[in-house]
Amino acid sequence: MTVTTDTTTLESGVRSYSRTWPVTFERAQGSFLHTPDGKEYLDFFTGAGVMNYGHNNPILKDALLQYLAEDNIVHSLDMFTTAREDFLATFTEQILRPRGLDHTVMFPGPGGANAVEAALKLARKVTGRESIINFTNAFHGMTLGALAVTGNSMKREGAGVPLVHSTPMPYDDYFNGDIPDFVYFERLLADSGSGLNTPAAVIVETVQGEGGVNTARLEWLRRLSEICREHEILLIVDDIQVGCGRTGGFFSFEEAGIVPDIICLSKAISGYGLPLALTLLRPELDVWDPGEHNGTFRGFAPAFVTAAEAIRTYWADTTLEDSTVTKGAFVEATLNSIVAKRPEGELTAKGRGLIRGLEFADPDAAQATCRNAFDAGLLVETSGPRDEVIKLLPPLTISEDELTRGLATLRTATMDALG
Amino acid sequence: MTVTTDTTTLESGVRSYSRTWPVTFERAQGSFLHTPDGKEYLDFFTGAGVMNYGHNNPILKDALLQYLAEDNIVHSLDMFTTAREDFLATFTEQILRPRGLDHTVMFPGPGGANAVEAALKLARKVTGRESIINFTNAFHGMTLGALAVTGNSMKREGAGVPLVHSTPMPYDDYFNGDIPDFVYFERLLADSGSGLNTPAAVIVETVQGEGGVNTARLEWLRRLSEICREHEILLIVDDIQVGCGRTGGFFSFEEAGIVPDIICLSKAISGYGLPLALTLLRPELDVWDPGEHNGTFRGFAPAFVTAAEAIRTYWADTTLEDSTVTKGAFVEATLNSIVAKRPEGELTAKGRGLIRGLEFADPDAAQATCRNAFDAGLLVETSGPRDEVIKLLPPLTISEDELTRGLATLRTATMDALG
Amino acid sequence: MTVTTDTTTLESGVRSYSRTWPVTFERAQGSFLHTPDGKEYLDFFTGAGVMNYGHNNPILKDALLQYLAEDNIVHSLDMFTTAREDFLATFTEQILRPRGLDHTVMFPGPGGANAVEAALKLARKVTGRESIINFTNAFHGMTLGALAVTGNSMKREGAGVPLVHSTPMPYDDYFNGDIPDFVYFERLLADSGSGLNTPAAVIVETVQGEGGVNTARLEWLRRLSEICREHEILLIVDDIQVGCGRTGGFFSFEEAGIVPDIICLSKAISGYGLPLALTLLRPELDVWDPGEHNGTFRGFAPAFVTAAEAIRTYWADTTLEDSTVTKGAFVEATLNSIVAKRPEGELTAKGRGLIRGLEFADPDAAQATCRNAFDAGLLVETSGPRDEVIKLLPPLTISEDELTRGLATLRTATMDALG
Amino acid sequence: MTVTTDTTTLESGVRSYSRTWPVTFERAQGSFLHTPDGKEYLDFFTGAGVMNYGHNNPILKDALLQYLAEDNIVHSLDMFTTAREDFLATFTEQILRPRGLDHTVMFPGPGGANAVEAALKLARKVTGRESIINFTNAFHGMTLGALAVTGNSMKREGAGVPLVHSTPMPYDDYFNGDIPDFVYFERLLADSGSGLNTPAAVIVETVQGEGGVNTARLEWLRRLSEICREHEILLIVDDIQVGCGRTGGFFSFEEAGIVPDIICLSKAISGYGLPLALTLLRPELDVWDPGEHNGTFRGFAPAFVTAAEAIRTYWADTTLEDSTVTKGAFVEATLNSIVAKRPEGELTAKGRGLIRGLEFADPDAAQATCRNAFDAGLLVETSGPRDEVIKLLPPLTISEDELTRGLATLRTATMDALG
């Protein structure tokens, strides 16, 4: 594989991460990425939360290689395959039912945006309403339906048509606690003259990854769930980035004790970076006609294989969940200690479980910190409307040593950036 | 992998192919799918045109297994990887440039709908217009932007919101040759009082796979391209189903000698059923801001590996292209001989290269033919607005014997169905 | 009333007719307008077809002055008034019922756009569909709902938002007879894969006044009515410009023998230039909730008074209708004789009853003819997408002498313009 | 004028006021309406604020009758007429310029909805943005553009299509003072990730008549104006119901010292119940192409005549303005005394100038009060999302005796209703 062309000129200018990290990566193992010339990078980014079990996780790798070697089916749309049936049974019996969820499983397409599009379409079909409530700084995807409920104005303008049928409501703590939760939303719903189109659904992330690691309190999520129930509005939880154990439990909403009507999963669900997405539906909502929503890559069998294997390996008991909580607390404590070193208001620590954020009052300092970290062999990305929050998404399987080492690098990078 | 649950109850009722073919598939090789109990099915469906090089193609399989075994990078968003660079260079140098195409490559997400959404967004951004011209019986995907340019009314109603910003125009031969090509479209464009919003783009499939194997004549495509140029409307060719050699040349539009402004590829591009999609842009249209369109699974490295290997293996010379044309002619001749056996108008043969259709005046007979074929070990699906067209998408690598055998099965299935 | 300011600078640049006819008018009587300095203009424009009974018609004037002098109610929203009741009874008993129309009367607001907006809203409410079929070169008004079904691209761009929920179909003779009527519309309706959203309604003008005096044949209207019935699509006739006797019968569609589901009237309905609009509804469609559509000037009592008086005066027998047909035939013959004087294709005569058009192959010549006519004391306006059609809308009450004189002026103006 | 038919069956069920007041009115003079059988009603409704100078005001009546008697022009679209020029000069010189307003005058059509539609269209055209901010419980009209910025859910549902391109913000005191003004709006504007489409304009009523006589504080209006300026958002004041002196000064926003970019006027502008509407534009915003927005009844000359006469009669000095303020204070004091008689929270007095509201905690009591008042010869209507606010709109020219008498009737009606 010798590459002689400068391939950056061959690719659309829309590329972004390769601008932040201008090196070529080749191999990856566990918590590390490697370049051809032997540099290694500790990965606190994990492909935007996709590689929860580490890169090329050996258990999943074995299952995948065996599956492929045996000429099992790779591609089959929504035909029945042994891999599909195994995944459906494993996911339902080991993940859904033990958590009291009676949802059916829909395969809406290969990526998270497909899961969101299917959720929105079904919510509208079921309720006969068109309007969706989203939240400030939400991120749900780039296709037209998903983009309409996404907050980022730069990405919204890429639509080229007005993005309508959605109304943004303030996410938890949007006013720094100065205003009671949901006061605006509840008032608009109660007032028949408010001008708010009655919503089909609310779509929410329990932690807003792209939006800046904004973390909803559990009571805020519970109240949101109650409001939805009171007004017969469907509750969609987009657990694409923070589901699959990122916050501790398999679903990020478990801790709040709520049961969403529709749940979107993708990213880490296959456990190996293989494209897969699920939309989980309360069974009474599953009013699709056969084939009413379809698509080519809905049954990517290798992803079923690694996904089922990941469930068997990591979700048969609470070992991973417990370790995520413990590691998360360690990261939190470390971030707090960094924050405490700096003047009040310069830094803020955020997050839950193993999605953590370090918010900088000065976005330039966040950028500089990222660059410093990269130079020191640590991959962290920024998020938030002004790219002012460093987002930490280490593998859930990261070792304590790696975690300690990465956080030390981050501390130094931060201090150097802040001067 | 012992499955004890009846997994059909665990899955959303939206599933469709598993209703047509109520068996569980396990393995696949070349032109065949196999069930656990040893039955084999000759595959004239190939996952809706995804498996152009046959299932688990051994050359691609070797490359894939080696890549995975060496712990090369699987998931990396749009970071630079050796696999990405190799694909970009190979695709550009061996596919694009030899065909006189100077397009840049965008990775819009893992599936075809992502490619279409990105194409539509960019066309609107570039032109500042919102309206898109699509064609009757078009199929471009299930996300909200792609669904708006899709014809099927059942699927459109699944949107739950009015699908707007698009106007359908008659596809080639929509009036059985009774009306001159483009007479309505050109009149509307020429008349400033027509009420047609000036389109940003036209999106077209050269052969409509889902729409019923409707096959545009080359002169129709050329005239469409001219009209677009005359009116400064962008031409988007959705080559997701019939690109990658399905009609002979790598791109289905090559034969017509046109150069689309934007090209959508997916399905067969990876050659191995691995989710990958491309949106190809004339370089002057590549006005995206960095990150303006993003998404998680835009850089699925194993797909890059098999895609590049497929190009090196099958597109270094014209062997595959020539064989596709030859096999296509053979299928055409066979279908014509079946048609000729029946009363005038009962059957019609359609298609180009190795996408072929057999249209039944009676949709029930098409269904019965499919069932007969399945019972005899042949997978063929129907398409068209009334599911009245049997669509043949055999692997391009199918052997002559397999092709002959499958067509014989189809002939018998058809005759039995028609009585 | 001495005006010293140059008031053109005080008014928005959106004004248009005052650019065509840069004089100030003061008084009007019958077929003539007068300026303060004593010039008179024969009016073949009649305020875009508003003054069907001539300016300041003495019979209506008497009724109006008496009504106002007696301090009868002028403004009352939709409260009951004696004037309202008299109008409702007179209109229903003398206009609707004798024509076999059992429609109820809705007062949607003071102008034609209100009548159209109410019609579209009700059609959508009744059918639960959102899409409307309009026709090329239609004109239905400037408010957002009405503008979406209007053809003129300059006016559409004034909306500032994409105008959606409508699809234009070719009006009668859009292809000069080369293509069978409704072939495209019927094909799209019959094909469930066409991509056409099933329409709530079709809105049509029997003669397109603003669109260039395009005149639908009666059999085209009948076939349109049948198609609507076959597909359970509501038929809305916008009779705002050509109803109230303009084509002969009170309604322009009478001659075709069709019964629209919804009828829009305005312009000439008051007979005196007083703002009034009606939306007539087949009783089973009248599913409005009380007050669901409201507005301030829905019950302009002086307009009721003159409207009722006009009905009693002009519609008790067929005198006016007969005379309109006779005069229309005379205008037609005259226009034909003008056309016959010129090379083939340079001029075309169009129209029905007393709405007539003279279409110029060269729009500049149409403009020049208008200016010549104005200089010679005749008011005629142009219409059509390129302002290429001179539109004649003389008062229905015009005398034969006036009509002859005006046509002679037009002939000279035309010949001078064409050189 | 003998009416024998029961005309209620001839009219659409959409009628509403005739349900509240099931009598037929015939004549009107000053503050009173009269029925044919000699009953008289003191009018605290004035046709929803249209008859500010009383019914059939004798000064305006003389001007109108003379104008009509002399056969002056009644209808002329936007042609120059002496009446139009006189109005333009009078309105500009006596109303606009003395108030420091350099706006140009646009005649958008006969009613208030036309004024709003034109304002929204122009705001979008000027800014190139599509989104409008409206307020909770706003009322701006029934046409599709105006309805999208109206709050009432029953009326919104009448649209039959999703009403989009608008986002409601809380009106002044929407949270009873618990939340700082504009905290949500400003936060959304400041946050590029909020998901709010950048607005073209804000449209606001200084007092919400239909919304329940909600009265914005002057500092709230000033802050709104500042926010608009800071963010380059156009400010549209819809002064259709409370302009023309209703709150004291000619424009309701004068007192706040703000200068809106666009102003909508209608209802009372003609002074005689004659349909007329104005859209006033800051001259640099007047970018309309000639004829880009047009319409039939934009130049209703009799309305120009009475409008100009009303300005000369009532706005040459501050007599009317002063008396409105004085009378308003008297009404306020009376309402306060009624409120004080009842338990805390049962009644609330609202309003400014001579638009006043009495809000009932129990909407049924508001209805009963209206009925009691009607039985006692006083016309008052309810407003607000639950029809819980009795709205008082007496003529500005009402005598002290009439005002006192009406308020006494209202007091009794209220007390009887509350028991």
Automatic annotation (TrEMBL), chains A, B, C, D:
Cofactors (names): pyridoxal 5'-phosphate
Keywords: Aminotransferase, Pyridoxal phosphate, Transferase
Biological process according to GO: ectoine biosynthetic process
InterPro entries documented for this protein: Aminotrans_3, Aminotrans_3_PPA_site, Dat, Ectoine_EctB, PyrdxlP-dep_Trfase, PyrdxlP-dep_Trfase_major, PyrdxlP-dep_Trfase_small
Enzyme class: transferase
PROSITE patterns per the UniProt record, alphabetical: AA_TRANSFER_CLASS_3 (PS00600)
Superkingdom assignment: Bacteria
EC number: 2.6.1.76
Name the UniProt record assigns to this protein: Diaminobutyrate--2-oxoglutarate transaminase
GO molecular function terms attached to this record: diaminobutyrate-2-oxoglutarate transaminase activity; diaminobutyrate-pyruvate transaminase activity; pyridoxal phosphate binding
Pathway assigned in UniProt: Amine and polyamine biosynthesis; ectoine biosynthesis; L-ectoine from L-aspartate 4-semialdehyde: step 1/3
Family: Belongs to the class-III pyridoxal-phosphate-dependent aminotransferase family.
Keyword Transferase found: yes
